[in-house]
Specification:
Elements: H1 3-24, E1 29-34, E2 41-46, H2 56-60
Antiparallel strand pairs: 1-2
Length: 61
């Protein structure tokens, strides 16, 4: 097993663990990283982990 494969597998394990914790706690799954080309943050938000029943007014916002 190469070092790159080991690092990739451990990173995916951490993402899966965090995703499951978010789902269990009914929270959005948020992951962010710094874009190496310009130094800005790249943020991804996954609301599929949440079980929200939004009203029509909340959906518009």
């Amino acid at each position: 097993m190469t070092l790159k494969k080991f690092i990739a597998d451990s990173k995916m394990f951490e993402y899966d663990k965090h995703y499951r914790e978010c789902k269990q706690n009914n929270q959005p799954f948020i992951k962010a990283r710094i874009n190496p080309s310009n130094g800005n943050y790249y943020v991804q938000i996954d609301l599929m982990t949440c079980n929200y029943n939004l009203t029509q007014m909340e959906r518009i916002r």
